[in-house]
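Q: Here's a chain of 311 amino acids. Please give me its 3D structure as tokens.
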Amino acid sequence: MATRTTFFRAAAAGSAALVLAGLAGCASTPATESDEVTASAESSEIPMPEFSQELQDLFPAEIVESGVVRAATITLPPYSYKDTDGSTDIGLTWDAVAAMEAATGLDFEVEVTPSISDVYTGFESDRYDLNISPLSDIPATQANYDFANWIAEYVVFLQQKTSEDTIDSLEAACGHTIATLQGGTAQKVLEATQAECAEPIEISLFGDQDSAVLAVKSGRADAAFSSQIPLTYYTQQDDSLEVSGANSTDNGFPPFWVGTSAPKGSELIDPMLAVYNALRDAGTYDALLEKYGIEDNAMDEFGINMADMTS
């Protein structure tokens, strides 16, 4: 059963400062409690894969011996977010983790970090074996990380429906304040776009998607720039918001893939690809995408390090 630990810290970047849980400064402080969370897939009608000894044996011997995979994720609906009780982690990631555990017989101990930058730091300090949040498999990230991809994605803008200017491309973003996730690939694309703008983009960085979207709703940002699946989720929750540039391939990203990632050369990527294939064979994959309304983001074939296939 997945173990959930949430970390809180204050993150300040660019012109925007984000303070979480009343903490100041930039140090990561672990929460004092770690509790077990039962993923919602276990009590739903989502089909679960059967345990496979052959699948477990694909994992490194030290992982099998310990029975634990140390994983990290970030808060990013609909992948990972809090239930109405304010403490239980739910979402696509947690449903998938329940299925991974059923298939492998291993315990995925998942920590929810404030931002993707904290995942990178955790890799450097050997805190995590895997990142199971949806990091984009593009050349810039593939330089340092290997990927087992299982979902297709696009990058789009989120705006208020009442916005005077439509921001549906990088060119249209020039001269506007754009909110995005700190340390994410969208930040790098916005920074690279600056040289092409007559008026610069004011980039506001946030540790989590909720805060970036709140900046848009409060008028502190003109738009948010991130993956289509999470931003579409927010439009489903709030009728005042809309996605601009849906399914676009002109936002600095060709069609691309997201999935589990680990430091370059990790021995866990091949086993994780096999796990995702097992989830597909069991019917879990299609059921998960249907549950979260993202059937259009299904992949016909999963793969490893697919960034070079987008060109």
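Q: Can you summarize the key feature?
A: The longest strand covers residues 3-13.
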